[in-house]
What we know:
Distance between the termini of chain A: 79 Å
CATH superfamily of the largest domain in chain A: Nucleoside phosphorylase/phosphoribosyltransferase catalytic domain
Largest sheet of chain A: 6 strands, mixed, barrel
Radius of gyration of chain A: 27 Å
Oligomer: homodimer
CATH topology of the largest domain in chain A: Pyrimidine Nucleoside Phosphorylase, Chain A, domain 2
Strand content of chain A: 15-25%
CATH architecture of the largest domain in chain A: 3-Layer(aba) Sandwich
Helix content of chain A: 25-40%
Amino acid sequence: MAFVLNIRRIDIDTGGDTQVVLLRGRDADAFGITPGDRLQIRYQQRTITAVADITHHSIRHGEIGVFTDLWRILKPTDGQTVTIDVLARPPSIAAIKKKLLGKEITASEIHSIISDIVSHRLSAIETTYFVASGYIKPYTTRELVGMVRAMAETGEMFTWRRRLVVDKHSVGGLAGNRTTMVAIPIIASLGLLIPKTSSRAITSPSGTADTMEVLAPVSFDGAAVRRIVRQAGGCLIWGGGLSIAPADDIIIRVSRPLSLEPYDKMIVSIMAKKVAMGVRYLIIDLPYGPGTKISSLVEGRKIEQRFRDVGRAFGISVRVKFDRANEPIGQGIGPALEARDVLRVLQQKDNRPRDLEEKALGLAGELLELSSFCTTGKGYAIATQALRSGRAWAKMQQIIKLQGGNPLVDADELLAGTLTADVKASATGRVSAINNRAIDEIARTLGAPDQKRAGIYLHKKLGDRVKRGQTLLTLYAVTADRLALARQALRLHTIITIGR
Amino acid sequence: MAFVLNIRRIDIDTGGDTQVVLLRGRDADAFGITPGDRLQIRYQQRTITAVADITHHSIRHGEIGVFTDLWRILKPTDGQTVTIDVLARPPSIAAIKKKLLGKEITASEIHSIISDIVSHRLSAIETTYFVASGYIKPYTTRELVGMVRAMAETGEMFTWRRRLVVDKHSVGGLAGNRTTMVAIPIIASLGLLIPKTSSRAITSPSGTADTMEVLAPVSFDGAAVRRIVRQAGGCLIWGGGLSIAPADDIIIRVSRPLSLEPYDKMIVSIMAKKVAMGVRYLIIDLPYGPGTKISSLVEGRKIEQRFRDVGRAFGISVRVKFDRANEPIGQGIGPALEARDVLRVLQQKDNRPRDLEEKALGLAGELLELSSFCTTGKGYAIATQALRSGRAWAKMQQIIKLQGGNPLVDADELLAGTLTADVKASATGRVSAINNRAIDEIARTLGAPDQKRAGIYLHKKLGDRVKRGQTLLTLYAVTADRLALARQALRLHTIITIGR
């Protein structure tokens, strides 16, 4: 239904980003317009489309306020009448209502929702209704597949000429983050393709992307990623530099206030990115048990089934590797300290953290078996051979070089010039608990991940014997005030607890 | 868990309205803080509480930005360390999650949600999750009662010494809005108490409050309302001037984008306000049929049952009066034109609109019977007698006077000085359709409800015979440009359709 209003010029140049026009609240109500509705505005032979916003300033009742940018297109005279049509609300709104009323939604309805989220045609409140609608009834496998496809297809997609495109993904927690930097060069050195994207730290003191950035740049566009992967068979880059599954970030934003993270959302988020990256074989590293996202192995098995069902629809073989994680893997916390652990493993130094090496070899071995690169039972040995022989390190050097870093880096060069402070044991006994949350907070207080060389080195791990006065951990900082701040914070938190 | 940050002064005086402090996104993530979380900030012996917000400007990693207002309370020196505790998230968040996961929530959980909505402790996104959670499972009667109680109790409440406190409420549509102004003085003139609050126009050209405002002010605080009702036994005021059930407006705001209006929300919204006003007997005027909120009488009966169940919990007798509405009641559209219709009925003029009189007498009669003021079958006659005898008009004069208006007003004084334009019939025949939506739009274009004397007068109603060239309707405006605008809009819309 069309209506007429007097046009009023608003002398602001918005730079063309937001094609917004202003209405008085009562006029908007009268015409059934809510903020965010799209309007078509006609003046003589010219037409513009803009988004309605409500104001109580600048314009009067019966007027429509038009900013300089759109004014130039329409070329009216101030006060003249224009004809306005409310354009149909995005059909995705109807689809969200349908899901909210408990009905299954089709692949094309899902696509309309995701695509409207990505292009900001849906507001935060509308997106919230969509997220909430997922609680009405569990998503059917068909809906999950539709979500994954829509999220992948509304972003950048990668295809590869080779069949053996593999990946590993760690879910949540700090444990295992650094295994990626060991496992990827092992896999790539054996001739498989592993186009790995990682995230930066969200709640931990360093994400894989932050740690890799100690050794080489990690932010590349799609063309650069294709070039690196074609040459080295693998990469270690930051996923945020690409626009794979861009709806995910927006959905995460409205999920935060209630700390909602249903399994389905996690599955969709992970699988959409793997579909976008063209992965065919995928190992998922899933910690379970109290304090993790998955409370029991029974629960875990159900999630594995969902992963496999979705994977099947896209020709992706998925295997979930369950793992209990009580403490960090490796001894360094913070980008450079973690990179040092990784280099020590790849360079096969005597002081390398064995738990990190073990876990990375296990994951690499599983991936080799899942992709039928080798028969069952042989993967671990093949991965070990690639590491021991120096081929994995040579592959890592190639990746570092292609990403623009220094391939001649040595593990012990990474921490030059940092300020340190040791924390000593106040009693003799055995390490009975390691407080991961305190590690995170103190490491962030020390400056990680922004200050690459800041962090914590754990000299003792769970079960280790300690004597009173022995060094339990060392704090690393770049500036004295950060070190002082951390020492102050340490009075509030205990990182390592010693039992009898 | 506490943590420490360096305090940084932000030289802006916010006027004390928003007690916000700023954190860098990565610090907030590290400490598990989301925007809107409440923080307690300690410096020496002093403590402030503030809401966290995220910024990428003004402060650095490891800093907390504090505006001048809070800075004055804390009295730190720039760069010193402060200790920060994240205060527990409102328990209402957990209650919303519980409802979203399909569980029934208790009265005290409902109270915590509503009270946090009212005090803006819940964000728009969190409130959206609450609204969406209503779709997981229908509210139980116990939950509905809890909602009504919480919404009433978080706002202003009225209690009256008399038992016969009655009310009528019209649901949606423009039909019946003006019956209120006829029925209230009839009821009050018979000695019952009817503390009537009305709304202003949302989508129509005039709400009862807008129409009453032609005759007297309508915006009063609680004390004034108590005084008026004690003296006159009734009032005709704008509900928005009081703060009864204030959560309702906030919930409506987040419901709009999806145009969600489930019956339960409507029941809660109406009943909360009646509980707050201390009403004991309530007639609900409910239009049904295609194009209204209630599609069938069967549906309507279910809603009636819900209304009665909720009413019972508060000692309110509820009766629903079903009605089909195809066209406006009365002939005037717009505040003054509607007020003229009302005065013509109350002053018993010959040219009074009989449909308005009939409907108002019917509603008043039902209310008299429901409250046992009289026996069944006698209400209509008693109401008619109050109107014919002039007692209802005398009561209306008292209400107008107590609200500060002119009790000597005559129906025909209200439209002096307006510009008019007649719309003539282009054919001979019978009125076969009246387009209510077009009436709304044209009347708003003419300036209603802001311009009280603007509007439309319908000379013909459904089924009336018309001859070519006869006046179908008259447009009223205060300024020439509005009249011109409406004539232009009339080219796009037909208000009265003439069939053969």
